Amino acid sequence: MADLFDKCRASAREMEAIAAGVYPYFKAISKLGGTHVTVDGRDMIMVGSNNYLGLSTHPKVRAAALQALEEYGTTCSGSPLLNGTLELHEQLEAGLAAFMGKEAVRIFSTGFQTSQGVIAPLIGRSDTVVVDRLVHASIVDGTRLGFGKVRRFRHNDVESLRRNLEASMDSPGGILVVVDGVYSMEGNLAALPGIVAACKDFNARIMVDDAHGVGVFGKTGAGVLEHFGLTDDVDLVMGTFSKSFASLGGFVAGPKRVISYIKHNSRALIFAAAMPPAATAAALAALEVIQTEPEIRENLWRNTRFLKENIVGLGFDPGPTESPVVPIIVGDDVMVLLFWHRLFQEGLFTNCVLSPAVAQGQQRIRMCAMATHTQEDLERVVEICGRVGRELGLIR
Ligand SMILES: Cc1ncc(COP(=O)(O)O)c(C=O)c1O
């Protein structure tokens, strides 16, 4: 009989990366200052963060978190169902419902729990959930926790979605289609108009995970639904506070009766402690900043354009990105690890993305523009990427 722990050894890829001194994960940061961080005593430019609007250092957001810490202490020490609901949580939910243009909102302690905690209770034995092949891991796990049938369609392929919906029609239950608003490793948007039309034709409900879209897209920053003018056509939209909201936690917005059902049936909500007061206050303050300081979003888009245009200008391939996510596709494990390592040595903190986070051949460096990067920061990013890319023969 095998020992259960036999599987607990490093993969060959992991061991080789460690032996070669190019292991790119779990890098400990000693000082976190938004666009600049300190690692191993060195100042680095952070281009690997989802803090798109740079609000983690915004004075109003910091002040709100500090004040909540003073007033409430560090934790709620319990589930929202029992002792973990603060008036602060209710204020955040009401503010988000108005911002997202939906009847009601439920918040969760993380974005990951939100996808799980919404999908699992909605998908009963006779129901079907249909997801894009590239949806976030939290959605995949949510579908695994539901009791219904799971189908996957080709990435952003509306015909493939329609075929899957057609095939689901003989089942007696309902259908939920789930897509990401912005695909986080690729940076492209869901083909939402076609997807929404298909859902209407087949009487399917639709949920969008807009973790990377809220605060970034749309006239008021309400995300990709607003961007496409489809706010009223999408049943459920979820977001996370760990990106543009500069905090930790997640939310789902939708019809009152569905939110009430989730509140009373979601295990990820009922059996987990509530968002801590400081994180809640930070998200609430960030929501206000997103609504009252649109120039921050304009800065983000200006910086995004600069970074993307210059990365393309150097001869790199960023793939189909339409968002502040700016990848450099390298397509090979060894080369992407080396590239990441040399960028890190030169003072750039980027994300090294290998399979299974992306398909084989799509290995990449993932960078994100932030509203608070200075022109000098971005020029340095471009200069380093160009120099190291030429050194490694990735570009000419
Ligand atoms: C699309 C998407 N959904 C959900 C999540 C989970 O959010 P959190 O990390 O805030 O728990 C993420 C985080 O990376 C994400 O990218």
Overview of the structural elements:
Helix 2 packs antiparallel against helix 11, helix 3 packs parallel to helix 11 and helix 6 (158-167) runs parallel beside helix 7 (192-201). Strands 4-10-9-8-7-5-6 form a 7-stranded mixed sheet, with helices on both faces. The protein is globular. A hairpin with a 3-residue loop joins strand 1 (31-32) and strand 2 (36-39). The chain is 41% helix and 16% strand. The protein has helices at residues 12-19, 59-72, 87-100, 111-122, 137-145, 158-167, 192-201, 224-228, 256-265, 267-270, 277-292, 294-313, 333-345, 375-391; strands at 31-32, 36-39, 42-46, 104-108, 128-132, 149-153, 175-180, 205-209, 236-240, 250-254, 325-329, 348-349, 351-353, 364-368. The protein folds into 2 domains: 11-46 and 294-391, Aspartate Aminotransferase, domain 1, CATH 3.90.1150; 59-292, Type I PLP-dependent aspartate aminotransferase-like (Major domain) (Aspartate Aminotransferase, domain 2, 3-Layer(aba) Sandwich). It is α/β, with parallel strands linked by helices.
